[in-house]
């Protein structure tokens, strides 16, 4: 079921809301996200440093900048963005996840503006907009990306991540990962996966320019890591065209 005028799919919200209780447990149902998060953060930090010509050794490179994380879950990305100095707003459609996020942030002494909301309900502009592993779960990806673009400040940076639509992603992310319990069953619908070429078109239709694509690959020796191999999962960075 889709909420009218919103990117939110109620069934997807319910599925992820059920994970709220152990979201911050690195060995819990969201363990794969915990493994993925350092890889995503390394990419974000590199893109941020390049885009704003920042000191790559700075502990708080985002000081003075605003960040919006859409589909934030219980805050796995929002918290590191806050630690990097950003003034963070983070939204998710699941009240239980936002409650878990607020509780965890308080325990960490972090001031993050968490909201139960869809991106279409927001106003204002943000220097950095992130939405990781979300676009494959929304009702209309094109409308969702337009809504993200509407929240991106002039000169700002948009960063997304999503599974590629390949035989390898079907095998590992839908087949093996769910079969062996690495992620909860039903997490992914292969038909909703978006390849980089289609992603670039969606970005262009939202008056955004793709400036970088980088893969997230997996190997037995390295685990998840940034790579030129985009067959499994990838990150994309865009700016206003």
From TrEMBL:
HAMAP family: UbiG. O-methyltransferase that catalyzes the 2 O-methylation steps in the ubiquinone biosynthetic pathway. One of its GO terms (biological process) is methylation. S-adenosyl-L-methionine binds at residues 40, 71, 92, 132. It is an enzyme of class 2 (transferase). Pathway: Cofactor biosynthesis; ubiquinone biosynthesis. It catalyses: a 3-(all-trans-polyprenyl)benzene-1,2-diol + S-adenosyl-L-methionine = a 2-methoxy-6-(all-trans-polyprenyl)phenol + S-adenosyl-L-homocysteine + H(+); a 3-demethylubiquinol + S-adenosyl-L-methionine = a ubiquinol + S-adenosyl-L-homocysteine + H(+). InterPro entries: SAM-dependent_MTases_sf, UbiG_MeTrfase. Pfam families: Methyltransf_23. Belongs to the methyltransferase superfamily. UbiG/COQ3 family. GO terms for molecular function: 2-polyprenyl-6-hydroxyphenol methylase activity; 3-demethylubiquinol 3-O-methyltransferase activity. Keywords: Methyltransferase, S-adenosyl-L-methionine, Transferase, Ubiquinone biosynthesis. Its EC number is 2.1.1.222, 2.1.1.64. NCBIfam families: UbiG. This is Ubiquinone biosynthesis O-methyltransferase.
